[in-house]
Amino acid sequence: MDDGLRKFIEGMPKIELHLHIEGAMEPEMLMKLAERNGIELPYKDLEELKAAYKRGSAYKDLQEFLDLYYQGMNVLRKEEDFYDLTKAYLTKIASQNVTHTEIFFDPQGHTERGVAFETAINGITRALDEAKTEGLDVEVAGRTENRKVTSKLIMSFLRHMTEKEGFETLEQARPHMDKIDGFGLDSSENGHPPTKFERLYATLKGEYPDKRLMAHAGEEGPASYVWEAIDTLKIDRIDHGNHSLDDSALVERLAHDGTGLTVCPLSNLKLSHTLDMDTKQKMVSLKEHRLKDMLAANLKATVNSDDPAYFDGYMNENFIAIAEALDLTKEDITKLARNAIEVSFLSPEEKIQKNEELDTYIERDRLSSQYVKQDTGHQRFFA
Fold first, then answer.
1. What's the pLDDT tens digit per position in 155-212?
2. Residue 22 counted as domain residue
3. Model confidence over 330-346: pLDDT tens digits?
C-alpha cells in the first residue's frame, strides 16, 4: 500500500457504528479480569490464550468464535470490570482518530450468568460518559494528547434466545432507558430469522419511538433476512448486510432508502464469510470482499471492527486491510467515512460538524506536503 494512503487513513477522523464492547476483550484484559475475580481459565498462560484467539488465521465459522467470545465474557463480573473494558476500547480508538462510536452490549450474556443488568450498564456508561466529558489521555507520535470520544449505547438481544426472554430483558432495561439509545439483534443468525422477534420489535417501536432499531442480517443469513429486518422489524440500520448483494431488488430498495450497512471486513475474513449461499464458497482473502460492489451500487456501506480483539484489528486496521485488498482510493475511503457520518445516530447539527472536520482534514492533507512532516501520520490535523 502507498504510504501516503496509509497515513491518510490513520489520521482521518472516523466514526465506528458496529462494535460489540464484549468483543474488545484483549487477551491481556481477559487474564487480568480472570485473576481479579478468581476465575480459572482453561489456558496455562497468556500465549496459549492468544493462540485461542487465532491471530492471523480464521475461525471455522461464527459459532466457533461465539464459543470463545462467551467464554471471555465470563470474566466480567463487577461494575469495575465493565468500566475497565470500555475505557480500554475507548482509549484505543481515540489513538486511531475515532471521534464517535455507537457500541452494542449484550445484557443477556451477563444476566444469565447472575450479573445484574445495572452492573453491566453502569460500568459501561461510566466510561462512555468520562470519554465524552473528561476525554482520554492517549499516546500519539511520542506525546500525550487528551481526546474526547462521543458515543451511543445500543442494547442488543441475543437471537439464539427466545422472544419471551427478550421481553424479560426489556423489563430489566426499563429503569435504564436514559442510558440506552437504541436496540439491536445479534448472535447466531442461521435458523433465527428476524421475524422471530416481530412482537418484541413492534413493542420497542411503539413504546420507545425515539430509540433507534438495528438487526444483524445478511452476515450468515440470506438476503431474505435483510428484507425481514427492514419490512418486519422496521429497522433504521442493517448490521453487516453482505448478502444484500445477492438480491438486485433488495439492493435497489436499500439504495433508494439510504439504509446504512455496517460492514466489518476483518470480521468477515476471520469468520470465513460465505461468499455464495448456494455453493457455500468461503472467503479466504479480503480481495474477495464485495465492499467495492456496495459502493458501486450506491449503498451506504461503512467500515467497522465488530469484535476487534478477536478479529485482529480496530478501525485503522480494518480500513487499511480493505483498502489494500480492494485497491481503494482516497475518494473511496472518504466516501466510506461520509457514509458513516450520514447513517450514524448523531443529530443533524453534529453531522454537519463531523463533515466539516472531515472536510478540514481532507484539505489539510491536500496541502500537507507543503508544511507537514511525513512522520506525523497519526497526528490529528483537524481542530
1. 999 999 999 999 999 999 999 999 999 999 999 899 999 999 999 999 999 999 999 9
2. yes
3. 999 999 999 999 999 99
Of 352, 328, 314, 256, nearest to 95 (Cα)?
A: 314
Q: Is 219 a catalytic residue?
A: yes
Residue from 22, 189, 219, 357 carrying the catalytic annotation: 219
**CA–CA distances in Å: residue 4 to residues 319, 370, 373, 377, 378:** 14, 14, 12, 8, 12
Query: Domain count of the chain?
Result: 1
In a domain, 256, yes or no: yes
Provide the residue type at 350 as one letter. E
Q: Are 107 and 148 in contact (CB under 8 A)?
A: no
User: What is the pLDDT averaged over residues 216-240?
Assistant: 97
In a domain, 205, yes or no: yes
Supply the range of the domain harboring residue 278.
3-344
Query: β-pairing, 150-158 with 182-186?
Result: parallel
CATH number at residue 174: 3.20.20.140
Task: Supply the pLDDT for residue 309.
Answer: 97
**CA atoms of 240 and 268, how far apart (whole Å):** 9
